[in-house]
Structures are given as structure tokens and as C-alpha cells.
Amino acid sequence: SLVVLFGATAGAYGAKLGSDERELILLVWQVVDLHSKKVGTLHKSLVKADNLDLSDQCREVSGLTPEGLGKAEPLDRVLQQFSQLVSSDLKVLGRSSYTLCSDGQLLIRQVLHPETSKKNFLLSDCFYTFYDLRKEFHTCYPSSATVKDQTIKTMAEYLGLGTDEAEEDFGVWQVKTMVAIIFSMLSEGCNHVFTEPETVKYKYETGPCSKSETVDSETVIRARGLPWQSSDQDIARFFKGLNIAKGGVALCLNSQGRRNGEALVRFVNSEQRDLALERHKHHMGSRYIEVYKATGEEFLKIAGGTSNEVAQFLSKENQVIIRMRGLPFTATQEDVLGFLGPECPVTGGKEGLLFVKYPDGRPTGDAFVLFSCEEYAQNALKKHKEILGKRYIELFRSTAAEVQQVVLNRYMSTPLIPTLPTPIIPVIPPPYTIATGSIRDCVRLRGLPYTAGIDDILEFMGDATGDIKPHGVHMVLNQQGRPSGDAFIQMKSADKAFMVAQKCHKKMMKDRYVEVFQCSGEEMNFVLMGGTLNRSGLSPPPCKLPCLSPPAYAAFQTAAVIPAEAAALYQPQALLPTTRTPQASTAAPPTVTYYPAQAAQLYMNYTAYYPSPPVSPTTVGYIAAPPGAVAAAATATHTPILPQPGALVRMQGLPYNTGMKEILSFFQGYQYAPDDYNGLIQLSDQARSVLQAPKEWVCL
């Protein structure tokens, strides 16, 4: 038997069903006996949503109102009634088993599974197998429209069935028409047999991935904006209803081996990938997740591995992987097993442990552990931040892809997925310096909302804003140029920094509390250069580590270069400090994290974290000012600066396959205006000739 099922949400209808995360508000169904060609009672049930605000399209198409829905039952009760009524109808027809049949896949995959997952209740087994009427119809009638273009109405018209929707209630006409279509497919001329149902995976299967595998680029997406503590199971839950390939979740790490809020996900086919893209900006908890297309090559760079040690460790499939961080460097396998204890036995004993080491064999303090079941893993996670030796140990859920990234790619000389470094200076301010030394006249803000800007920080500081040094606010960005949640502020004295730390620590900003610590200029510089600052003191940035300190260490094979024609427009000495020599790696940390020009070229350096240009309420250009005021400020300080509108622009969010032609086409019609620069920039003859030449864009 089939149970023909139709549903609608409070939002989009048709091809966009479920794409806006709106809740289910209507279910209509009817049992069909394929052998006797008899039908059961047609049932229509309204569903009470948590949010009864209906979209205009929903009101127009369905005719439903918030008042009517307010009297309905919630989804869990409706699904219980569904099971009971279907069982009753089957008994009347003399049947015992059934399979769902829906118009396309959206109702099952994009509405029911995601919504029940968010509301934390389980769907019955019948919702994990169903027939897609559109696919079955196209199989039965190959000359009909493609599956993607099919609708209930087009299928009915192809068969010459009546299509007057006004005669029936919304949902009732759809189910009756679907039943009529099924009977036409069962007629003597067609004799269609329903044999290959669609399936929804019950759970995500973990497993390793080899670099020699072929991964279809049409099956891979990139998810961005994930909570840093999210695991592969959390990501699989976000995509609930869609079939992820075995071992198809790869969490991306930064150069320090920490998760950067991105993941690459591989689905079983392109159809599932296309449905995943419709979940762009759906929510995981309170955060929205961006979903974009990615390539198979990118997935293999993250998830692929060839190490025999890793392959042997991951050969035991369907294991729960836990990552341990902060282990004493002298810790042995016996120490780790003793720390975990008998309540969480490790799969295979010592064979279930994998220590992460630097290329020279030194331990990193990280290890991965295998557990045979969820219960043992949960017991292990309860030991988060317990003490081993003299150090507290952090424990997190992990994935096979993360194991391969951390073990195989620890501090590689090139990033796993190349990202464009930030432009040297988005807006060119007057010269500034970042203080160094051991005087604790700075504060560090940790845990900022990712949407927080300079204005939010100044409001958070309150009366202490007046004690900030000029150009003393430093927002720390990650590799993608996005806020990392950290910021540094230079105060006028150590006493002022102490008072701010005492007053603002754990004060709320938007919906998050922010930690505020007093620190020194030296500590601030280390973090801005990619190092870490924690209870154990300073950990130097990757480029300062002894094992990774060849003079040519860089994250990119070649430095990003601004063409000489563009560099000629600016006086290098006005933009950047004097260059550092390679031997400077043994000296004190540099005073800034922007790097210098050499001859007519400007080079951009890459670090794990880098600051945005320091700003403060006194910075020229921070608060919008008329061009005349900017020019006056430039004249007074004898500092060449660019006018606020124009100058350099930074483009974010470009498609990964974008080339120079696409960028030039995007800016078609916008040209340089050299007259705007007169009197504001001291131009050399070469620069003036560039400006007066035929207008064109210079891509940096």
C-alpha cells in the first residue's frame, strides 16, 4: 500500500518549500491499496506552528489563517494521529504495511526531517523510505517533462485529468489528483510497478578518505559560520534528511590546528547537494550557517590522507573519535589510559590512541582517542578540563577528517585551502605605532559577537573610551578576514587598563558576555602575529617556532604583490614602516603587523590572525567627515592620505572561480577620477602619468 502525503508550511510553496525554514502547518493524506485499487479515508490535519505569522504566499494559496491554526495540535501530536489513522485504514483494507508517496522530495527531506530534528523528537521509520511521485511518473512516461519541472498540475494535464483546484480545499485537491495519477500509472497500458523507493539515512557514518579517491565536485558544499565546538554529528544534524556520503564531513582547521568555523560536506549525489544549497542561512542554534558550492579537490585537501599510521588508526569504522588537547609533552599511552579510567574504555587499548607530533618528532600536546559507543565517549567528555600532571586537559568531539588534517598537515608551509590575504590598508590612516614592552597598559577583549564593530566596542567601554590611545583599537580577524571574536585596546596607562579589566570583565555585549583581561603590548603583538595567550603564558606564532623558522617561511608560495603601476600611486614611506630583514626573527616582535614595500612593489604578509587598521574616535576617517576636513587634516600633518570615498576597495564573497575579466566587468562604468586626488597626494611624475593615461582598473 501507498500513503499519499501532501503538506505545506507557513512560508514558501512549490519549488521553494522548506528553503525558508518555516514550520509545517498542514498535512493531508490517503491510503491507496495498489492491488485492489481501493482507497481509505482522506484525512486533513492542521498543525499548530510555534510561529503563526503566515507569509503572503501561504495565505493566498492555502486560505489558512493564524486564528484557525491556533486551535490545531502541535506537530508531534499530529504525527501520532497520523500513525494511528493510517494503521486503522490499513486494517479496513486488509493490509499491514505501507510506504509513503509524496509530490517530490521537499516535504520529507526539507521540511519534516529538519523540523523534527530541531524540535528534538524522532520520526517513525515510515518517514525514512518514500516514493517520489515525480520520478515514478517520469519513469512511467519518459516523454513527459523532466523531473525538476514536474508538478501535480502538469502531471494531471499530461494525463488529461481535471485540474480545477477551486472545487476542493487546499491540500485535498492535491491528494485526490495524486491518487488519480497513481491509478493511471497502474492501468493496463502502463502496469507501473513501484520498486525503488527513496531512502533517508538514519545516521551519519564516519570513515576515512584517501587522497586517491575521486570526488565529484557536484556533490560537495562548504558550510561557513559553524560554532567552533560543533562536531561532524552536529553538521549531519543540520543537514538532517539529506544523505551525506560515508566520512563526508570534513571540519576545516586553521594553521594552529584549531577549527575555523568552516566545514566541507560531501553528499551521495548532486541532487542531495542541490537540496543542501537551499539551506543557505538556515540556523544551527542561534547562528545562521552559510552554504556554498565547493569542489572535490578542496574536499580531498581537507579530508584526504595517505599516512599508514592514520589509516590504521581509522580502520576501525563506526567509532566515536575524541580529541584531547593540552597533554603534557611527557605524557605516555599509560598516562592517557589512566586519565580516562575504566568507565570509558578505549577501543583496542593502546591501539585506540594516536598522539600528534611535529615533523621533528616532538609531541604537540594533542591526541585522538577511539571509543566503541556513544556512552563511553560521553563519559570521556565529562573529564573536560580535569588535571593530568600539572595541566588541565580539553576534550572535544572529532572526526576522521580532522584526524588526517591535524596529523598530516600540522603547520604545513601552505594553507590547506588558500585564502586571499587582506589588502595592506583598506583605508590609509596617518602613521601609527603599536606599543611594545612589558607595561600592562593594554586590555584584551575575548568572546566578542562576530557582528560587533568598533562602535559596539566603544559603547561597551563606556566612560573608559576617553582613556583609549589614539589609533588604539585593534580588531583581530581570522584567515578569511572575518572577526575572530578578539580585540585589543591600548589604554593611556596601566592603571586605566586595570580599571577597565575590573569594570568590564564578563559584561554583556548584545547576547554574549565578553571577557576582559589586562595585558602588555608585547603580549598583544604576539597574538596579532598569530601566537596564543593563555594561562600557560605566551605561545609564539607559527613563524616564530624553532622547528619552523627557515628564513623563507611563509604561508603562500609566493608573496602577494601589488603591481608597480599601482604602487607608484602611493608613497611607500607614507604607508608602511621600514622593512624587516630575515634575521629579525631572533629579535623582539615587530611593532606592527603590516609589512613594508621594497622598491616599487608592496608585499602582503600572511599570518594565522591579523588585525584590521587600528582606529579610535580620534582617527581621521573613522567618523565620516567632509572632503575639505580630510584635506585640512592631511595638510596639517603633512601626511599624504587618500580621500575617504574611493581609493582602495576590498571585495569579499567572490566566487572561487572568479578571474580578472569578471572583476573588471563587475566594475564596468566606474573609472578613476584623478582630479579628486589633486592637492591630497604628492604625486611623482610616474604616478601622474599613470593617472592621466586612459582610465582602467588595476586589480591587486
From TrEMBL:
An example molecular function term from Gene Ontology annotations: RNA binding
One GO term (biological process): RNA splicing
Subcellular location per the Swiss-Prot or TrEMBL entry: Nucleus
GO cellular component: nucleus
Keyword NADP: no
Record domain RRM: where: 320-400
Keyword Disulfide bond annotated: no
Swiss-Prot/TrEMBL keywords: mRNA processing, mRNA splicing, Nucleus, Repeat, RNA-binding
Family statement: Belongs to the ESRP family.
Name recorded for this polypeptide: Epithelial splicing regulatory protein 2
Organism of derivation: Elachura formosa (spotted wren-babbler)
